Amino acid sequence: MNTNITRIERLMTLATGDEKHDSSSRSTLDVLWVLYDRVMHYDPENTRSEDRDRFVLSKGHGCVSFYAVLADKGFFPPATLKTFLKWDSMLGAHPDRHQVPGAEVSTGSLGHGFPMAVGIALALRIKKNPRRVFVLIGDGECNEGTVWETALLAGDQHLSNLTCIVINNYSSTPDLGDIAAKFAA
Known about the structure:
The chain is mainly alpha-helical. The chain contains seven helices and three strands. Helix 3 packs parallel to helix 4.
């Protein structure tokens, strides 16, 4: 197993509470680590720099791995993970952009993060800003009509600065079929 992933999994254990959504968080860990370690451009000291890539965790209930990666990358001290779900903690059950350094948007309601990511990608294009937008959604939220409407809009607008990553852990009640083919269409 990758030692970096093992380190972040240890950080995840610092977060305690009944609403951890462990399987939702663990299913995103590899993707988050690769994005923040090898793909995205960001500065944890300047979280609102115009020269940063943007990441949207649409699957907001899977935030523990997101928090652990942010802590590992210096957005806040790893010891903060111990405060997860505590009354006065910045680390709630869903990311809050006003509380969590590195959280671009507040998410939680399924199906909302992808449309926000498209809006961010469109705004960057209008500003002629070459930075990229990454959004992570889950197969469960692919049951939301907004996901498919947004996929159609993103395709129609040819948003080359947008990457949508779907984590399919087969938690969706209806069989979604070939998700990749649907997005490609």
